[in-house]
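input
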Amino acid sequence: MPVAARKPENMDFESALAELEGLVGQLEQGELSLEQALKSFERGVQLVRAGQQRLSQAEQQVKVLMSDGDTLADFATGEESQP
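output
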């Protein structure tokens, strides 16, 4: 798949991370032209930003779920919290 074939914001987290790891590997080998390296770096930045956004959204979802004390189990004891 070409480097910019899919928008990072439309990719799932795992796919974006896998592509980012591939880009890092290519950059570390040092065999890309300057132009290719800059394009790869730019794509990597886009992937990182999209990944950070997804992680932030997931963190917010966890916070919302954790704030609902009526149905969540107490992880330390394994018992459900009482209203």
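quick obs: The two ends are 52 Å apart (CA to CA).
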